[in-house]
Amino acid sequence: LAGTVPEEPRCTVERADASLTYSLFLQRFAFSRPVILGGVTDNSAFRALCTREKLLAAFGPFPVRLSTANTYSYRKVDVPFQEYVEHLLKPQDPARLGSDTLYFFGDNNFTEWGPLFQRYVPPPFRIPGTSPAYSFGIAGSGSGVPFHWHGPGFSEVIFGRKRWFLYPPDKTPHFHPNETTLAWLQHTYPTLPPAQRPLECTLRPGEVLYFPDRWWHATLNLDTSVFISTFLG
User: Fold this and answer.
1) What is the pLDDT of residues 86-139, one digit of tens each?
2) Contact status, residue 141 vs residue 182, Cβ threshold 8 Å
3) In angstroms, rounded to a whole number, what is the distance separating the alpha carbons of residues 72 and 178?
4) Domain count within the chain
5) CATH number for the domain that contains residue 222
6) Do 128 and 152 meet the contact criterion of CB atoms below 8 Å apart?
7) What are φ and ψ of residue 227, in 5° steps?
8) How far apart are alpha carbons 63 and 90 in whole angstroms?
9) What pLDDT, in 10s, does the model give residues 150-178?
10) What GO MF terms are annotated (predicted)?
11) Is residue 8 part of a domain?
12) Under a CB-based contact definition with an 8 Å cutoff, are residues 175 and 220 in contact?
């Protein structure tokens, strides 16, 4: 499936650049709608540390915690990082359920991964009363997390491309909790009338998506991807 998962015909998420001020971010986006931010961070130094070779050299023998790619009942599996990269990091099987698909994202050991995260430049905006927490992930093409929601946050692509689907809190999407995002895109998405389709866009390296509190979202990696999110809790 590498390179064959399609991008959306057009991005329907609003974009903003480095001219966006903090006050405008709070006024226009923080509590109301998602936005893609371009040029607000420079993570070229962090990206240089996230190549396959550099990550294997730094973290190969350390265990990483994988989660199943379903919505409600996450099963956890611990494997050495090198085993994940060399044997489990592969394109999504379209016939495989999310509850049987293992995904590396979010359960990071900050003692081991902390020195890497110290090199990451987070987005410059915050929500008052929150503090940031990082979640780092690597995943194969066609993989992703199906629809779910939580508190507000940012997500940045370091390598690859990542397609996002978003619905506001009052518009629950139709999905099966054990269905992968790829299966949903292939089977459910084509049946949706235009008015029922989500906001969607594809993020490329250096772009940051902000999503507000309780917005439904699902992700789909179009390539083997490296990404990091900043959750505001």
Assistant:
1) 999 999 999 999 999 999 998 888 899 999 999 999 999 999 999 999 999 999
2) no
3) 8
4) 1
5) 2.60.120.650
6) no
7) -150, 160
8) 18
9) 999 999 999 999 999 999 999 999 999 99
10) cis-regulatory region sequence-specific DNA binding
11) no
12) no
Number of CB atoms found within 10 A of residue 116's CB: 19
Task: Find how far residue 164's CA is from the centre of its chain.
Answer: 8
Query: Is the separation of the CB atoms in 11 and 35 below 8 Å?
Result: no
The pair of three-digit structure tokens given for residue 176, joined into one six-digit string: 């099966």
**Strand, helix or coil at 222?**
coil
Q: How many angstroms separate the CA atoms of 217 and 150, rounded?
A: 9
Output the six-digit token pair for 51. Answer: 């190549």
Q: Indicate whether 1 belongs to any domain.
A: no
Question: Could you identify the residue written with the tokens 């969607």?
Answer: 200
Query: 200 in a domain, yes or no?
Result: yes
Domain that holds residue 96: 17-232
What single string gives the DSSP state of each residue in 110-179? HHHHHHHHTT----S---TT--EEEEEEEE-TT----SB--S-EEEEEEES-EEEEEE-TTSPPP--TTS
